[in-house]
Amino acid sequence: MVSWAKIILPVLALGLLSMLFLFAERPDPEDAIFFAEADVTELARQQRLSGARFAGTLSDGREVLFSAASAAPQATQPNLIEAEDVSLRVELAPADFAVLSAQRAELDLNEQMARIRGGIDLWRSNGMQLTAQSLDVALDELYAQSPAPVIARGRGMVINAGAMEVLERDGAQLIRFTQGVQMLYQPN
Question: Secondary structure of the chain: what % helix, strand, coil (to 5)?
């Protein structure tokens, strides 16, 4: 019985498999999966990274995380990286950090600077919020400046200024507002 099963079962399987191919319908090219309409030569020529993430540390060891929806080096200057839909997280102290999001950024690897532009929102873990259109951020130390107007909101206060500079002295983070500073303070 086992000897006959060794012969009959593989022949039956082969017969069933053959019937699948005999009675199968021809594939319709109209039902094929659609692919994205893209210029393949342009994609091959352009170096672009989707979901880019860079991690590093400041000179004193604090973490810096940079992410972007897409990033690409400039064709003429490969040390300049253009990024879109960016996010930057900087550790300020062991339990204190700042998170920045913006529309685009240009990273200059030679100068260790990021020029961030368009719809900048910055949140700090202590509750402070800042909005700006332009911000230049150092990648190797805690330093940032905005030559354009900024709005800062914190506990009970709103500050409007024409420019701003963030720096660190003796372990303390300082924010210097200049060019027509207006402050509205509302105590609890």
Answer: 15, 55, 30
Domain contains 29: no
Provide the domain count of the chain.
Answer: 1
In the three-class reduction of DSSP (H, G, I as helix; E, B as strand; rest coil), residue 176 is classed as strand
Check residue 30 and report its DSSP letter.
Answer: G
Query: Which residues, 6 or more positions from 48, have their beta carbon under 8 angstroms from its beta carbon?
Result: 70, 71, 72
Give, for 54, the enclosing helix (H) or strand (E).
Answer: strand 49-57
| C-alpha to C-alpha distance for 99 and 105, rounded to whole angstroms | 15
Q: What is the CB-side half-sphere exposure of residue 131 using CA atoms within 13 A? A: 5
Does 61 reside within a domain?
yes
The tens digit of pLDDT for each residue in 160-174 reads 999 999 888 887 788
- Beta-bridged to residue 176, according to DSSP, are 165
Pairwise CA distance, residues 34 & 107, whole Å: 36
Ranges of the chain with pLDDT below 70: 32-46
**Residue 58, helix vs strand vs coil:** coil
User: Which domain does 107 fall in, by range?
Assistant: 41-185
